[in-house]
Every structure is written in structure tokens, then in C-alpha cells.
Amino acid sequence: MDLNYSPSYEQFRQEVSSFLKASADKQPKGAGLKSQALKNWQKTLIEHGYAARTIPKKYGGFGAEPDILKSRIIAEEFAKAQANPGMGGQGISMLVPTLLEVGTEEQKQQFIAPTLHGEMLWCQGYSEPGAGSDLASLRTSAVLDGDEWVVNGQKIWTSTAQIADWIFCLVRTDPKAPKHQGISFLLFDMKSPGIEIRPLVDMTGDANFNEVFFTDVRVPKGQIVGAPGEGWRVANSILKFERGSLGDPNATLHRLAALFDIMKHETIGGERLMDKAAFRDRAMRIQGRVMALQHNELRLLSAKINGDDDVRLAAMLAKLQGTELRHDLEGLAIDVLGELGLAYGDNPYLNGTWQYYYMYFLGLIIGGGTSQIQKNIISERALGMPKEPKFAEGAAT
Amino acid sequence: MKFGLSEEQRMLVDSVNGYLQGAVDIDRLRAASTNRDESSDDVRRALAELGVFALLVPEAHGGVGLGSLDAALIAEQLGGVCAPVPFIGSAVATRVLASSDPELAGDVLAGIADGSRTVGLAIDSYIGGRRDAGIIAAGEVLSGKSLFVFDFDADSYLVATADGATYLLSADAPGVTREPLTTIDGTRRFGELRLENAEATLITSDEAALDAGVRLGRVLLAADALGAAQHMLNEAVAYAKERKQFNRVIGSFQAVKHMCAEMAAELEPCRSMLWYAGHALDALPQEAPVLACQSKSHITEVASFVAKTATEVHGGMGFTDLLGLHYWFKRIGSARQMLGSPEQLRDEAASVQGLI
Ligand SMILES: Cc1cc2nc3c(=O)[nH]c(=O)nc-3n(C[C@H](O)[C@H](O)[C@H](O)COP(=O)(O)OP(=O)(O)OC[C@H]3O[C@@H](n4cnc5c(N)ncnc54)[C@H](O)[C@@H]3O)c2cc1C
């Protein structure tokens, strides 16, 4: 164990923290993904190497050598200062790393820079009404016609489709191949003729995800990542990135601090919430879970740097544990607030976004592979237990 | 010995449930939740005709004079459909008023019984005031603030002070300012009352009378949550038998079976607990205080577990407004926080048993 950052890292930490202090009033607060303010902020972050840090300059990134400790310091300082971390979204967190890994040079040139700078917003078209946990059974088809793919079918639960410029989409290009082998990964413009988007309201009251219908949508032949039939492999390299980003311990730490704040200041019947033994114990228990996951993350980080630790299990549990923990943490804040915890929307007694995130994280427990599917993965791939028997189409109940 | 419902109670449940299933659909819940002014007065009137509001009112005041268990069975049906109609506030008021001077209470009780009046609950000062909430009484003149007043769209309010004196306040009395408050649960109405020298009628300064009302309120909230949770479990089981993934119904996966079985195994004893608690309120005065606390804390916690798990069984569909499962999820959430959260109630349960 050596938990000291060398002096050069401490100096780097200083730099980040002074940058954040100096730019505190330039940061957009709660700005939409399409706002110019957010785009400007993102540009500043990339210029300083606080976003798109290790992405090569020629693709619009900052071009630094990978240094996991520095990335971690940036994340920690941004969390501490409650600073806006810049653009997120499925394009930046999922598509860009995938293109870097398996895209053609031309695709990297065309897509990465505008995505990083918020000029090109993406949505992820995977799930279909009949293909959720069983994603590989998807039916949306793409048939080659001359130099174009012709896409027909329907996606569902497509987050941000209503504002996205482009979609990365799984389609079936070979209906005769075994189901995992007939899938391809296409990129196309959401303004293409033949796309219809119907927003779906979710339990938070937002309409952030959508049904998306494709009728003879024509996509240039070259807008495919990997070869035809390799879509499943490409998609799995993406899911790896998605699962890593759900339930981030830095964000959880942030929420824990806000919870403690409330418990130190809010009262019931004149007594501080933190002085109530039962509430305090629940808060301390949550803190213990946060610490365990935070240190699990530190171990993953160290394994990446040193390559000397088998962290398969430690990595596989992150999405399952991280999303459940966040849901529980938000729920505790609601409980300690009592009736006040019911406040929502325009309620003047609203004391934080607890109800919103209590629901949002239930959404993330389901989205990106449900908790049950995560447990299947952990038991089969990390613990080596036998797989579920496969049923042929039409075989079962 | 018989532990269970009587023939009359089953008939009562069937008649109310039969009506509610047809009358309260998802469109109504959507409308009530998105528009505060959307009224479900038709449902309220129909329920009045079925005798729902007269149930607890003594016969002498035009009621039916049934007991707490009967009221709990009604609350369970209302929770089962998330009925956007006030019931619990008036029931608590009925209990407190019935123990007071008939001269004072007669009119109000008759109005509750025939469905022409509803009473909201502004008793947070007594349960445990938040922020700067608190009601001060000078004689029969009230000042102060009550937050998250429950069944807010009412024509009068049962208002309590911290020391347990109870008043009846007319909603349009001079000095009363009413501010609706938005919460996650759009099927119930909440709001803030600000009182500035508002004249009210002292119902009783006997804390025991208010306690009896609070106990009833807690058991009715537990019943409401039980009904809502049972609905979510039923939906999850039905969905698990229909929805196919990997060429099989998801209910054939042991993971999904166990989620459903665990919900059922947790929830079913809650039904017995509720029956006993309802019975205890009227027949077992020694046990009533602890059962009111424990039934509400335990049943709403089980209901929260069911709310989350049943949503998960539905996958992405559970998270949407398409199926609208979230109305029940939120209804359970609000039952859990009102009239004392689980920790608060367990603390009180220990205290009323003399354990601390
Ligand atoms: C907030 C949110 C955002 C989303 N965003 C996107 C997006 O941008 N793009 C996109 O493509 N998709 C998105 N999704 C879809 C998400 O990936 C799916 O909802 C998820 O994979 C589950 O699929 P399903 O909804 O069809 O549920 P189902 O697969 O029908 O699952 C229903 C239930 O069955 C269980 N189950 C299924 N199979 C098994 C099994 N083998 N073993 C044990 N249990 C099983 C599940 O765990 C679940 O409890 C989003 C979902 C949510 C909730």
C-alpha cells in the first residue's frame, strides 16, 4: 500500500483547484445539453485537459498521455467544488471510446471531434419492445440496396432521441445467421427521412426517453462500425463503458455530503435529525457502503495502473452495487425529511432532488442491464456457475 | 375463535371494490396528478351513496356506526386503485369529534356522513413539526403554520397544537391562508395552512381523544399502502406470466419467481396484521397504541419494498407512464411519510410499551 500522491500530483491538484475557483462564475448551472453555455464550458474544459483528456488532439481532444491518477484528481476536485464536469451523454461516454477502439480512421475523423464539443448529440438505439434483457433477439432490419442500408423497425426506451442529432443503432443485417451473428452496428443522422420519434413520459414526469420508428431509412453503406455481422461484439465493447459510468462513486460521495448537511440542519419537533439515533445509524450504514464502493473503485484504478490484481469480480459488481446504493441513499434522505420529503416540482419546501433521484436510480437499476441480469453475469462469468439452459424459439410456455 | 372477516365485511369490500374498479382508471389518475383542479367529485359522491363516509359516524349522527376494521378495509380498496378522493382526514376527524360534545360535533358529523363535508388534517404540530411549523392557541384563536396538511381540499380542518388540544377550523374563516403544495403523490392533496388570529372551535383539550384519531389515521394509511402494494404485486405476477424474453416467459426465471414470491411472503402477513390492528383499535385498548405504530411502520416498509420490486419485474415498462405503475409507487411513498415515518413510529412503539 502506498496511498501518497507524489509532489507533482499534489501540484496538479493545486492547478485544478485554482482553475475551478477562478472559473466558478463561468460554469453553466443545470444547462440543457443543447445550450451554448454548456458548449462553451465544454470547450474551455477540453482546452485545459479537464475533459476529453486522453483523446488525441487530431480528434479534437486534449491529447495527454493516459494518467489515471490525474484523471482521478480531476474527478475528485470537480466533485469537491460541485463543479460542472462538462458534457456527458451516450455519445461521449459510450460511442467515442468505442470508435477509438474499433472505428475506421475516417469515422474517427468525422465523428469524434463534433461529439466531444457537443455539436453532435447521440442516442443509443438498442432496446426494442421484444428485445430488452434479451437484446440479441432484436428485429429492426437493415438490407443493403446499392450503396445504402435500408432500415425498418422500431426501437424503444431510446434516451434523448428527441434532441439527438445522430443515433448509434443495432440492426439485423443477416436474418439467417445465428442471432448473435446477424447483427450490425450502424451510425446515422436522426434527420434522415423515415424516422418518427414519440416521447415517453417516465415516472419522474420527464419525457426523456422515446419510441423511435424507422420506415425505409436510407443509411450510407460506410456508416457501419466493424464489419456486417460484428455488431454484437461492437455493442458489448460499448456496454462495458456504459456499465462503468452508472453509479459513479464520486457522485455518490457528493450526495452523501448533502444528506449529512440536511441531517445536521433540519429538525423534527425541535430535535436535529442527526441526533436521532435511528436516522444516524442508517446514515452511517450508508456511509459504510459508500466507502466500500469507493475503495473498490480505488482498487480497480490501481489494478489498471499496476496490472497486478485480478479485478474481474470487483469490476462486474460496480453497476449493480452502485445503482442500488444510490437508490437507497436518496430514499434515506426522503425518510429523514418525513412529509417534507414528499415535496416535488414547484413545492417551496423542496430541499434537494431526492425524490427525483430516488426514481431516476430505480430507472438505472433497470436500464443498461437489470440488476437480475447483472447477477446472472456475476454468477456465470465471475463465479463460473453454469449458464441458464437456452430455449429454442417457440419452445417454452 | 375466528380470525378473519365477517360475511358483512366481505360484502362491503366487494361492493366498494366493484364500484372503484370501474370508476377509477389510469386516465383519472393521470388527470388528477397533472392538474390540481381536476376533481373526482363524482367518485366521492358515488362512494357517499355506498355509505363509505357514513361508516364510522355514530348512528345518532346519521351514520352507520361501524368500526375501525371496516374503515381499514375501505382504505385498502381506495389504496388499491389510488383513488384520488379524500377519506382518511374525515375518518380521523370523525373519531375525534365523536368523542366530544354532541352539540359541537353534530353538524359536522352529519355532513361527513352524507358526503357533503370533508375535513383535512393539520396535526403536524402534534406529530412532530418541521421547520417553523407550529400552531399557537389563545383561547379559540389560532395562529401559526401547518405544513403538508393532508386531504387539503376540504371545507374544514382538524387542527392540533403541540400539547394535543384539537380544534375545528373552517377553511374560509378570516385569517386563514391556504397554499397548495405539490408532492410526488398527485392522487392526494397536500397544502400549507397559515393562520393569523383565525377563530376556531375547540373540540377537545383531551390529548387521549386526539391520540385515538391519530391511531386510526395510521392504521388507515397502513391499509391504503397494503391495498396499493397488493395491486403492484398482482400486476407484477400477471406481467411475469405474459412477458417473454429468451424465448420463455420471464416468470419462468427463478430470479423473477423469487422476486414475486418474496413480495407475496412479505405482504400476506401484513393483511393479518392489519385486521388485528383494526380490531385492536376498537376492542383491545391496551394493545392499540403499539399496533397502530407497528402496523403502519411495518406495512409501509414492506409496501415500499414491493413498490420497488414490482417495478423491477416490469423492466423498462415499469418506469414509464404507459402502464402508470408509478402512481401506486408514489401513493405508497406518501403513506410511508405521513403521520410519522417508520423510525419515528418504532421509537413511539417502544415508548408506549414502556421499553424506554
Ligand atoms: C431509464 C432508462 C433508460 C434507458 N435508456 C436506453 C437507451 O438509451 N437505449 C436503449 O437501447 N435502451 C435503453 N433502456 C432500456 C433498458 O436497457 C432495458 O429496459 C433493460 O435492458 C431491460 O429490458 P426490458 O425493459 O425489456 O425488460 P425485460 O427484459 O422484459 O425484463 C423484465 C424483468 O425480467 C427480468 N429478466 C429478464 N431476463 C432475465 C433472465 N435471463 N434472468 C433473470 N431475470 C430476467 C428482468 O431482470 C426484469 O426484472 C433504458 C431503460 C431505462 C429504464
CATH superfamily of the largest domain in chain B: Butyryl-CoA Dehydrogenase, subunit A, domain 3
CATH topology of the largest domain in chain A: Butyryl-CoA Dehydrogenase, subunit A, domain 3
Q: What is the string of SSEs of chain B from the N terminus onward?
A: HHHHHHEHEEEEEEEHEEHHHH
Largest interface: A-B, 61 and 52 residues
Counting H and I runs of at least 4 residues, what is the number of helices of chain B?
12
What's the CATH architecture name of the largest domain in chain A?
Up-down Bundle
What is the total domain count of chain B?
3
Strand order of the largest sheet of chain A: 1-4-5-8
What do you see in this structure?
- The complex is a heterodimer of chains A (397) and B (356).
- Chain A is of the alpha+beta class and 397 residues long.
- Chain A has three domains: 18-87, no CATH class; 122-230, Butyryl-CoA Dehydrogenase, subunit A, domain 2 (Beta Barrel); 247-382, Up-down Bundle (Butyryl-CoA Dehydrogenase, subunit A, domain 3), CATH 1.20.140.
- Chain A is built from twelve helices and ten strands.
- In chain A, the strands form three sheets. Chain A has a four-stranded mixed beta sheet with strand order 1-4-5-8. Chain A has a four-stranded antiparallel beta sheet with strand order 2-3-7-6, with no helix packed on it.
- In chain A, strand 6 (195-200) and strand 7 (209-220) form a beta hairpin.
- The radius of gyration of chain A is 23 Å and the shape is globular.
- The relative contact order of chain A is 0.08.
- The model of chain A has no long low-confidence stretch (mean pLDDT 92).
- With 356 residues, chain B is α+β, with helices and mostly antiparallel strands.
- Chain B has three domains: 7-113, Butyryl-Coa Dehydrogenase, subunit A, domain 1 (Orthogonal Bundle), CATH 1.10.540.10; 119-205, Butyryl-CoA Dehydrogenase, subunit A, domain 2 (Beta Barrel); 208-352, Up-down Bundle (Butyryl-CoA Dehydrogenase, subunit A, domain 3).
- Helices cover 54% and strands 15% of the residues of chain B.
- Chain B is built from twelve helices and ten strands.
- Chain B has helices at 7-23, 26-34, 41-49, 68-80, 88-98, 102-113, 124-128, 207-242, 254-283, 288-313, 326-337, 342-352; strands spanning 119-122, 134-138, 141-150, 156-160, 166-170, 176-181, 190-199, 201-204, 244-245, 248-249.
- In chain B, strand 9 and strand 10 form a beta hairpin.
- The two termini of chain B are 34 Å apart.
- The chains are: A alpha+beta (397), B alpha+beta (356).
- Chains A and B meet through strand 9, helix 8, helix 10, helix 11 and helix 12 of A and strand 9, strand 10, helix 9, helix 10 and helix 11 of B.
- Flavin-adenine dinucleotide sits between chains A (124-127, 132-133, 157-159, 209, 363, 366-370, 372-373, 376) and B (243, 245-246, 250, 253, 255-256, 312-313, 315-317, 319).
